[in-house]
Specification:
Blueprint: E1 18-19, E2 22-23, E3 36-38, E4 44-48, E5 51-56, E6 59-67, E7 70-76, H1 91-94, E8 101-102, E9 108-112, E10 116-121, E11 127-131, E12 136-147, E13 150-156, E14 162-165, E15 179-182, E16 203-208, E17 211-217, E18 223-227, E19 234-239, E20 244-250, H2 254-265, E21 278-280, H3 288-300, E22 307-310, H4 331-340, E23 344-348, E24 353-354, H5 362-369, E25 384-386, E26 389-392, H6 399-407, H7 410-414, E27 419-422, E28 441-444, E29 452-455, H8 456-478, E30 486-488, E31 500-502, H9 510-524, E32 531-535, H10 544-554, E33 559-562, H11 578-593, H12 595-608, E34 613-614, H13 616-619, E35 639-642, E36 646-649, E37 660-664, E38 670-671, E39 682-686, E40 699-705, E41 714-716, E42 720-724, E43 739-744, E44 750-755, E45 769-777, E46 783-788, E47 801-806, E48 815-818, E49 821-822, E50 826-828, E51 831-837, E52 843-848
Parallel strand pairs: 21-22, 21-33, 22-23, 23-27, 27-30, 30-31, 31-32, 32-33, 43-47
Antiparallel strand pairs: 1-2, 3-12, 4-5, 5-6, 6-7, 7-20, 8-9, 9-10, 10-11, 11-12, 12-13, 13-19, 14-16, 15-18, 16-17, 17-20, 18-19, 24-26, 25-26, 28-29, 34-35, 35-36, 36-41, 37-40, 38-41, 39-40, 42-43, 44-45, 45-46, 46-52, 47-51, 48-49, 48-52, 50-51
Length: about 850
């Protein structure tokens, strides 16, 4: 949902005059030493157990090892390091430490861990980071430089290095030769070149010939990243204030970097299962009757779905935590009816509280009583216009304010609202700045921080994250054994601990469908595994073909929410007639059949930081001969992985006509829809070195795809065992029938399954179900053995039988046994299916053929 469109230049954010440490114009920053100073040489160095401390005049820098593969750099121009506090990085990660080996000599200050070598030239102050073999991983182009309140970094930019991350940035997937600002912005009407957008995530991942580093610059102030756009072959970072606090995460693989980032900033918590279902929304379903009509139509048309959203018009005069009794005369009864139909309800709660002194509006009155709102520099309460009119803003930098905010949800939680949507939390204000002025004052009162005031310039980029944190923690306080669901528009590094997100107010165009893939890839590489886009495009009315294709692709993305702006045409699945609806329904049904796989990968993310939607290079770093990331190639830019085993091969441009080539990054893939192995294709590139996907060596396989509105090419990695469940209309419905394991023989064949109640935290008490699967093909390729492991955990399976479907068989099996006994099977179209009882003690299935 957009804020009012206003004008204003980002450059105005950096204009400031300070008075007693507070800016009285658009920008505020604390008074610190003026003038430019840099680590142009090292005048003194002291070894530390876990690194070194360096000095140049009043400049001080510490480089320490948190782990063998994670470094931290802290620096200041005041003679002492600043407070060690962070909204993003976990306290236990910041406190981590490993001993290092000192290697300094008269020319360099040097130390190493088991994985990394750090060397700083005493004469120039330039740092070089190498791995244990001496390969250069990162090198200063210039020494760190301070300019009054701000600082600048400059690194060399190898010709073959690529850059990803930074959250929901537009443009090409690879950020090379692009520049971006970090200043959370209500960017209604954004386009491919729009910057900045809604989130500020100062983390990027480098990728060079299959080797990756992660760089997190934990600074909440207005800042910018420039990947060679302004100065060729140089990566630059500039912050307008705040601490120089840099973390370097070494892989060498991109997967290891993401695991380290999750260790540093926290993983995504396990969401409720229903959030992986299809979600229907609109700005706005204007009445209670209309909400119930939409839900009824979803069930009548047998469109599997799990959530209906309420935008701001369910509220009285757009006031958060109220209900418009004229349009929604009995919200509790409506929610009860929706629950009976197995729908969950998500309600928007914007963070602005209307300024209503002397009126009976409890959120304002209790907020005033607790002194919960952001101040002006003169101590009065900041008031800015938003949807309800003049409004005040909670000061989420105070722990007590976040706790107060959480209590405001009590009434909505009591009537059964299942999730909450924090919009407009950049924060968006209807003025020329589009937000609060930087002269607004926050009062930090937070465990781990010194109690102090901070200007909005420092807090702006973290404000939305702390809003979603307050909502998340409020849900936990009200319902301690129910997993919260919060959807936020604005956030900062570490915000994945509290909320899912989406790409904001996109448009109903083919270009925005194309942009969605790269934006979700970069969000996943920035910690936000649970992310989506407004399906069909928020602004404008999609053509029937665009809405259909968008629903097809979104069925394989983490958050699948159909949402539309007020005044646009219908976006619901049944819009445009039965023929379009039939296609759309089929893809949503596929998503629901895949829920066991999607939920298993989502649970893995809570341990590994590996997102559900992945770029190809995350799984196939060695596929190309020069080991460049496949996703930067135009012809593969529409493709993405769903977990480790599914590849969605959408074309780069969906609105073009004619056949196109889908690129597969190894041999042996299977067609997801038919189960047939891809037998034909042009081997495009013979890569150097072997890859586990093929004993013959990796290739890029070009498969000719006929472009058709009703189809989307999806392929399965060889060696996959894919769990599939019978179709349900909601995750609240227990599947009826066997669990199906689709076996796609190949190297390292295996898979696993995770199940729990999908709602509570009982899984932390052992109430989950885990199973591992494997398969081995005989040496003569005529037989295959599938092993289904025992049930682990105390959660009961919903199935009594398992249907094992073995794909890729060239002939009918000559025999099949289950646990050593002959078994019946069916055979059709290169696949055999065996149904076996599952007692939970493990199953062995052996399929013998004369040929395979």
């Amino acid at each position: 949902m957009p804020g009012r469109r206003v004008t204003g230049s980002f450059s105005s954010l950096f204009l400031c005059a300070t008075v007693a440490g507070f800016c009285v114009s658009a920008q505020t920053r604390p008074a610190t030493p003026s003038g430019i100073a840099s680590f142009s040489s090292i005048t003194s160095a002291s070894p530390l157990p876990n690194g070194v401390e360096l000095h140049h005049g009043d400049l001080v820098m510490q480089i320490t090892a948190l782990r063998e593969d994670v470094l931290r750099i802290r620096a200041s121009n005041t003679g002492a390091l600043p407070e060690d506090a962070s909204w993003a990085v976990l306290a236990e990660a910041r406190a981590a430490s490993v001993n290092v080996t000192q290697d300094s000599d008269e020319n360099t200050v040097t130390f190493h861990t088991a994985a990394l070598h750090v060397s700083i030239n005493r004469a120039t102050g330039l740092m070089t980071l190498t791995d244990s073999t001496g390969t250069v991983l990162r090198q200063d182009a210039e020494p760190m430089q301070f300019d009054g309140n701000g600082f600048r970094l400059a690194d060399t930019m190898p010709a073959d290095e690529h850059y990803f991350g930074l959250g929901d940035k537009t443009g090409a997937f690879d950020h090379r030769e692009a520049a971006f600002r970090l200043w959370n912005t209500d960017a209604y009407g954004w386009q491919e070149s729009t910057d900045p957008l809604y989130k500020s995530i100062p983390f990027y991942l480098t990728y060079r010939a299959g080797v990756s580093l992660g760089v997190l610059i934990d600074n909440t102030w207005p800042s910018s990243f420039d990947f060679g756009k302004t100065v060729g072959n140089t990566v630059q970072y500039r912050a307008e204030g705040g601490p120089a606090n840099i973390y370097i995460l070494y892989g060498p693989s991109a997967k290891e970097v993401l695991k380290s980032y999750a260790w540093l900033t926290g993983p995504t918590p396990l969401p409720p299962l229903w959030t992986l279902g299809f979600q229907q929304s609109r700005y706005s379903y204007m009445t209670q009757d209309r909400v119930l009509q939409v839900a009824e139509q979803l069930r009548k048309d047998k469109i599997p779905s799990d959530a209906v959203y309420l935008d701001i018009d369910y509220q009285e005069k757009n006031r958060p935590f109220t209900i418009n009794k004229d349009a929604f005369p009995d919200m509790a009864a409506m929610v009860k009816t929706l629950h009976a139909e197995k729908f969950h309800v998500v309600a928007i709660t914007d963070l602005h509280i209307p300024f209503l002194p002397g009126q009976d509006y409890p959120p304002f009155n209790s907020g005033v009583a607790g002194d919960e709102f952001v101040k002006n520099s003169d101590g009065t309460t900041f008031v800015g216009k938003v949807w309800p009119g003049p409004s005040v803003f909670p000061d989420f930098t105070r722990a007590q304010t976040r706790a107060w905010w959480g209590t405001l949800y009590k009434n909505l939680a009591q009537i059964g609202i299942d999730g909450f949507w924090n919009d407009m939390n950049e924060p968006s204000v209807f003025n020329d700045l589009k937000t609060m002025p930087c002269s607004a004052v926050h009062r930090i009162d937070e465990p781990g921080f010194a109690i102090r005031t901070a200007t909005h310039c420092e807090i702006h980029n973290v404000y939305g994250m702390e809003n979603s944190r307050a909502t998340f923690e409020g849900q936990l306080a009200l319902k301690p054994d129910v997993r919260p669901f919060v959807l936020t528009r604005a956030s900062y590094a570490g915000g994945q601990r509290y909320a899912a997100t989406w790409t904001g107010d996109n448009s109903a165009t083919w270009n925005h469908l194309r942009l969605t893939t790269s934006m979700l890839k970069n969000l996943g590489l920035s910690g936000f595994a649970l992310a989506g886009a407004d399906v069909g495009g928020y602004a404008g009315t999609p053509t029937p073909e665009l809405l259909t294709k968008w629903l097809e692709i979104a069925a394989f993305q983490p958050i699948d929410r159909d949402h539309a702006e007020k005044g646009t045409g219908d976006h619901e699945v049944w819009a445009n007639g039965p023929a379009q609806e039939d296609i759309r329904r089929r893809f949503i049904e596929t998503r629901y059949r895949l829920l066991p796989y999607l939920y298993t990968v989502t649970e893995e993310d809570t341990h590994t930081g590996l997102p559900l939607l992945r770029p190809l290079f995350l799984e196939f770093p060695d596929a190309a001969a020069d080991r460049h990331p496949l996703d930067v190639d135009l012809n593969t830019s529409g493709e993405f992985m769903v977990g480790p085993d599914l590849l969605v091969a959408a074309p780069a441009f969906e609105d073009q006509s004619g056949d196109y080539e889908a690129t597969l990054p190894s041999r042996g893939w299977y067609d997801f829809w038919t189960g047939r192995q891809v037998a034909e294709g042009l081997e495009k590139v013979q890569a150097g070195g072997l890859q586990p996907e093929s004993a013959l060596g990796p290739v890029l396989l070009a498969v000719r795809v006929h472009r058709d509105l009703s189809t989307l090419p999806v392929f399965v990695r060889p060696g996959t065992i894919l769990p599939i469940e019978p179709l349900v209309q909601s995750t609240e419905e227990q599947p009826s029938g066997p669990l199906t394991l689709r076996v796609f023989p190949g190297p390292n064949c295996g898979g696993h399954l995770y199940q729990d109640d999908g709602t509570s935290f009982a899984y932390k008490r052992g109430e989950f179900l885990q199973m591992a699967f494997s398969c081995q093909t005989s040496e003569n390729q005529t037989g295959i053995t599938i092993h289904i492991g025992k049930h682990a955990g105390s959660y009961p399976a919903w199935w009594n039988e398992i249907a094992v479907q073995v794909n890729g068989l060239s002939t009918r099996p000559s025999s099949v046994t289950v646990n050593g006994k002959p078994a019946n099977f069916t055979y059709a179209d290169t696949s055999a299916t065996i149904v076996a009882k599952d007692s939970g003690d493990g199953i062995d299935v052996v399929v013998e053929s004369t040929a395979h």
